[in-house]
């Protein structure tokens, strides 16, 4: 894929994301789901109204900034309400989230490209992210999870850019990485898992480096021509990899894949992780994020002087510990962490019924009694089912690759060994598996009621995993695997279109609604 088509593809992904997030943004003239907190809190900063905030305040600052800017724009004020504490148009407290969420597919694509320098991988990662439902829903309302994700992803992208540069440019990007990670934690505490993922992949790189220093054994047969390609320009290396692909028929996946015995030794910024020492990590990804997190609190603490910096954190922790366990008795949509990957318990953010499509949109009060409402308006916080399910399979596939590379030499040589040079795809597998685990496994010990939207920080790495797998299929020597990659892509796109009415809250008949609620646990 040349640069021209790559740019056209990325612009198309962004336009798609932007259009879906802004279309009909103010159609529900009410507060949807946790807008009853976050939209009000954002407005409170503008009206200087003190309040207790159960989360770090950055997302509410952003929503408040959006309200202020939106209130000074002389259009999109056809509908207004006073539910935030001031007379506001729903557009004013939603548009900034919609704009921010539109950039998430681009950031995911940028990470994919920086990991591999493969434009096809980047396009697929951006497209799949743009075709997810829960990110679309969260972007269309004044909620906070979009900011955790985008700042966490920016932190990873800036870290990869830092690894791809030297000297002052490296330190420049490391500073931005630290700022972004601090901003992610400054939105919600679980933003810390993005930062922990960066530390874990750094530790993994040092472990690999240490093993290499004690062993010169090789797991792969590496072509000398490919070794030379690793030190040359990207275009020349690409040509050599294609030559190897034409000669090798030992693997069902292209020779770029770590499954292949002829594994590419091309460069990835992850190979430079050991160039960062403990000082770099503690300062740029320790002190700077902590500093950013601390100063984020200053405006809130000046507004509400009830608690100081330490005391407010004690109160927040107390608040979350009192929320109760993961039981429907606490909240009907409580969903423990193990229910997230297969999406067994999504949740409704908004549900109303009307007698006909010509009636004004219902915004207040309970739904009509059963059998009376002929039109259903449902905003469901659920992912693209096939994107999530295929993604979980792809992540397990990556885990299998990593495990096999440790088990095979143990079985054959009766000792542990590693390749002298890890392939690009092995590094990608390490990066995705570690970051997915870093964002999911901490929830195992959380006993309070949690919801499917807490999975958003982890599921982005699922999107990258399935994009990697499809890219490998499309680049395969075998026609069957190329067909598999195309089939998976079309199924994901079709599923996104099929479930789009419950992402956008479009009117559905009762039969149309039931057609999309495949399992009782989805309702």
Record the SSE blueprint.
Layout: H1 3-22, H2 35-47, H3 58-71, H4 95-102, H5 104-116, H6 119-130, H7 133-139, H8 145-163, H9 167-185, H10 192-214, H11 224-230, H12 234-247, H13 278-296, H14 298-303, H15 309-321, E1 347-354, E2 375-381, H16 385-413, H17 424-440, H18 456-474, H19 479-504, E3 507-508, H20 510-516
Antiparallel strand pairs: 1-2, 2-3
Helix pairs in contact: 1-4, 1-6, 2-3, 4-7, 5-6, 5-8, 6-18, 7-19, 8-9, 8-10, 9-13, 10-17, 11-12, 16-17, 16-18, 16-19, 17-18, 18-19
Query: Main sheet: which strands, in order across?
Result: 1-2-3
Q: Tell me the major beta sheet.
A: 3 strands, antiparallel
Question: Element order, helices and strands?
Answer: HHHHHHHHHHHHHHHEEHHHHEH
Number of alpha- plus pi-helical segments: 20
Strand percent estimate: under 5%
- Looking at the chains present, what oligomeric state does this protein adopt? single chain
Please state the CA-atom Rg, rounded to the nearest Å.
24 Å
Whole-number mean pLDDT:
88
DSSP E strands, number: 3
Low-confidence stretches: 217-265
- C-alpha termini separation: 42 Å
């Amino acid at each position: 894929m040349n640069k021209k088509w790559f740019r056209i593809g990325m612009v198309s992904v962004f336009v798609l994301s932007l259009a879906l997030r802004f279309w009909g943004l103010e159609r529900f003239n009410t507060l949807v789901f946790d807008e009853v907190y976050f939209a009000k809190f954002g407005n409170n900063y503008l009206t200087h109204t003190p309040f207790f905030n159960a989360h770090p305040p950055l997302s509410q600052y952003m929503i408040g900034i959006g309200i202020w800017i939106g209130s000074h724009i002389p259009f999109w004020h056809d509908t207004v309400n006073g539910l935030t504490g001031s007379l506001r148009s729903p557009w004013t407290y939603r548009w900034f989230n919609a704009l921010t969420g539109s950039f998430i597919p681009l950031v995911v694509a940028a990470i994919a490209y920086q990991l591999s320098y493969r434009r096809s991988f980047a396009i697929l990662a951006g497209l799949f992210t743009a075709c997810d439902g829960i990110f679309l829903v969260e972007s269309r309302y004044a909620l906070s999870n979009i900011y955790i994700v985008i700042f966490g992803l920016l932190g990873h992208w800036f870290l990869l850019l830092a690894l791809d540069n030297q000297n002052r440019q490296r330190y420049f990007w490391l500073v931005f990485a630290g700022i972004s990670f601090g901003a992610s934690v400054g939105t919600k505490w679980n933003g810390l898992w993005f930062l922990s993922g960066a530390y874990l992949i750094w530790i993994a790189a040092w472990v690999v480096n240490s093993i290499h220093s004690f062993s010169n054994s090789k797991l792969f047969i590496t072509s000398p021509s490919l070794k030379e390609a690793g030190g040359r320009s990207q275009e020349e290396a690409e040509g050599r990899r294609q030559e190897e692909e034409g000669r090798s028929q030992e693997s069902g996946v292209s020779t770029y894949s770590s499954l292949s015995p002829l594994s590419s030794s091309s460069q990835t910024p992850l190979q430079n992780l050991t160039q960062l020492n403990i000082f770099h990590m503690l300062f740029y990804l320790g002190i700077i994020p902590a500093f950013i997190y601390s100063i984020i609190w200053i405006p809130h603490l000046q507004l509400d002087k009830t608690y100081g910096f330490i005391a407010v954190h004690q109160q927040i922790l107390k608040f979350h510990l009192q929320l109760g366990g993961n039981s429907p008795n606490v909240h009907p949509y409580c969903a423990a962490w193990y229910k997230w990957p297969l999406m067994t318990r999504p949740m409704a953010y908004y549900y109303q019924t009307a007698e006909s499509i010509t009636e004004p949109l219902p915004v207040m009060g309970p739904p009509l009694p059963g059998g009376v409402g002929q039109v259903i308006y449902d905003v469901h916080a659920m992912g693209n089912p096939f994107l999530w399910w295929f993604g979980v399979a792809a992540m397990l596939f990556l885990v299998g690759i990593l495990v096999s590379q440790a088990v095979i030499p143990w079985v054959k040589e009766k000792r542990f060994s590693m390749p002298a040079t890890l392939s690009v795809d092995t590094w990608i597998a390490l990066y995705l598996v570690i970051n997915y685990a870093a964002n999911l496994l901490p929830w195992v010990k959380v006993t309070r009621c949690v919801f499917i939207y807490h999975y958003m920080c982890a599921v982005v790495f699922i999107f990258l995993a399935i994009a990697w797998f499809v890219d490998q299929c499309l680049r395969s020597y075998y026609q069957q695997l190329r067909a598999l990659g195309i089939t998976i892509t079309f199924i994901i796109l079709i599923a996104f279109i099929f479930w789009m009415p419950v992402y956008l809250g479009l009117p559905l008949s009762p039969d149309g609604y039931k057609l999309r609620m495949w399992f009782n646990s989805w309702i």
